[in-house]
Write a structure and sequence with these properties.
Length: 372
Amino acid sequence: MSYVAIKGGGRAIAGAAAVTEFLRTEEGLGNTCTEPPEPLKIDAILHQLRHLVDRVISEGGVYHPKFAALAVKQSLGDTLEAAFALRAWRSTRPRLSATPPLDTSRMRLIRRISSAFKEIPGGQMLGPTPDYALRLLRLDLMDESPEAFRAIAREWLETCPDAQLPDSFPKVLDALRAEDLLPPVSATRQQAAFDITREPLVFPVPRSAALATMARAETGSLLGIAYSNMRGYGDVHPTVAELRVGYLPVTLPHPVTGEFTEAGEVLITECEVVAMYEAEGGGKPVFTVGYGACFGHNEVKAISMAILDRALQKGMKDGPANPSEDPEFVLLHVDGVDSMGFASHYKMPHYVTFQSDLDRLRTTQQKSGEPA
């Protein structure tokens, strides 16, 4: 087929946007609804699709649950598009202040487990999780009535044990470190964290840059590369020392006194893993540690991040033996917004470059004596 020039413009773009909106309506669904559909309420998305909202918060890189729910609605549930919209909104906001390093031992926990020990200081707290349920479709939710939906909260509140939880729980790693089974806390923890929103990644990068990049990375990308390491393209087979989900108090300097004051709290997931032991500088062998933390309730992402943190530490020290240990490979390929943008750009017009490819191919065929 010969090259054909294509024309388009504002009317076509407006039409594409209009049909996207149309597909949200009853007629757009082909009148398959038994009842006239109502527009999704932001609060309904916020509470009933909370894992989806948490994922967008994390990948968007800004903690704003309501705007994350709005981005989910606007993007028709596409997490990459929603994260793109939320991150674009964040870029328009002024930066008024910065928090000091926050102490995650002060989290108001809703879930806390360890696979390293049966009993841990403060006890295991299973919390909200589908881990122990069968992965079967609940067909009763197909026609869930408002009355049955409201009854869920009443029944749970009536049967929930009225136990007083402590304000905080000790860290499992602290117990291991007290036995000299972990390396001492590095002095680099006192260094200023790398700001990936204002500084480009120029390799080699500090560990804080790697952690910040993975904290807002696309969940599936992190999982895929971490899985490659676990499966054999690497040697990190960790044990989860502690996995925490809870609300972390956020402190900011008071605008008048400068004193740090609690300004609110954010829901985060934190994972600390221990892996193979090694000896540093001829010292005694100790376990190695990987760390992961992200906004929202997203345990798979936090675990994957902790595995890759450990893998990247190994790669930075010994040189990468596998892709999952190469900081440049990992950190430049896990951002969902960047990856989506590059893949989507192929949908944009490439008429001129493809015409050049066609001309070169035809010329090559003619020179080789083959029919064009």
